[in-house]
């Protein structure tokens, strides 16, 4: 019976989806990478569309491989979320982003902010406020220089627990951006309850703006909505000057995209700041 059991196990094991094995291996590698300090933060400038000045940067996770390639950050985040490792990874990101931003400010760019992506899981844990406070204290960064990017899926989960954490973080002076706006939910009632300062128009609406007229009314409406709620708008994924000009005409406040820069290592971002001065 024992041998049979083992055979059965092996049967299932061999029949197991290869993708699952790959994910298991990747998770183990993510654990090791975190331990061995292999993760990096890259920074993509956020540009003010009126003056073309650099407002700050969004921190984006990168995991460089020995062959010079990168593992897809979305895959890393997804696995980290499902395994709970996002808590440890997320606090590393907060810590690193705050100290990099503090450094830029010290180097003569006191108005440059940093934006950090947060996973909804980080809110469920209950220790987020403490993690953020620790990152600010260790780095010496002012809370006003930190922006947290939140997804609609978190905000729609209108639980008191989440609301209270957002309120406490907001009271510190931290600001919030609603990420990937327009891709999540049609129920916008969360916009009333929650005090965000900006709204990021998802790049799926921006990428075809200059080639097809289909998305123009939508982007126009989102910008109007944001204005009426006194939120600033940030367009994601701007890749060409035609889109840039259209966004300026539509009254969009800020933008990010390859037109200006992809996400780059911290040392390169400060060079970018220096040459834009
Ligand atoms: P996101 O927050 O929506 O980030 C924007 C994504 O668009 C980034 O992909 C960025 O590299 C890419 N992008 C920027 N400009 C352009 C452009 O002009 N054209 C195009 N086609 N793409 C552009 P990335 O770095 O692969 O990140 C993917 C997602 O992974 C992010 O989407 C975010 O949801 C997640 N992520 C990345 N870093 C972190 C992190 O530290 N914590 C958490 N929780 N999530 C993260
Ligand atoms: Ca983001
Ligand atoms: Ca986004
Ligand atoms: Ca996205």
From TrEMBL:
Organism superkingdom: Bacteria
Residues of the EAL domain: 23-277
Name this protein carries in UniProt: EAL domain-containing protein
Organism expressing this protein natively: Alkalimonas mucilaginosa
Lineage: Bacteria, Pseudomonadati, Pseudomonadota, Gammaproteobacteria, Alkalimonas
